[in-house]
Amino acid sequence: MCENCKSQIDKITISKINNYENKTDKFFNKHGYIFKYEGQIRKLLIDYKFNDKPYLYKTFVSIILNNRKIVDFINNYEIIIPVPIHKKRLNHRGYNQSALLAREISRKLKNIQFINNLLIKTKNNVAQSTLTKEDRALNVKNIYKVQNSNLIKEKTILLLDDIYTTGNTVNECSRLLKENGAREIGIFTISKD
Description:
By secondary structure, the chain is an alpha/beta fold. It has helices at 3-12, 39-50, 56-65, 68-74, 87-93, 97-109, 133-140, 168-179, and strands at 16-19, 30-36, 79-82, 113-114, 119-121, 144-146, 156-164, 184-192.
């Protein structure tokens, strides 16, 4: 990243960690993120996710790993798992944007294990971004499953997604991980709407 771009990114970095431990409607404990979902970050994430620019994961991982607060947050977990996308969407897009990020974070930090395909999306539902907030919770209900739950029994899990809007997707995934024996779940996203 050039120095000008880096200074622009530094100006909009907010690096927050929200605590949800006392929320009865959440199955995860904490949520860490770096940016608000607006402006240049919104454009970059849309390009990354929808405009065939998978190489942008390197830029995002660089930003993540240069943020001490976020690295400390990530290092609290034993396993990092990406939010899955359905195989039809994966075949169409060619990559799971969350898996690219999670794999590279694990590779660079070394003390957090990357597990892909533990969570499976069983239904190719309508994209969350096209729905109202009210419809999003129903749209993600019972569309995921856990394979090989022995890998997560009594483990601390960091679930990674690109954008947090209502939290319905990560909450549904967290519910499944908890039901399958995960001890604690944190969420990390690049941005929060």
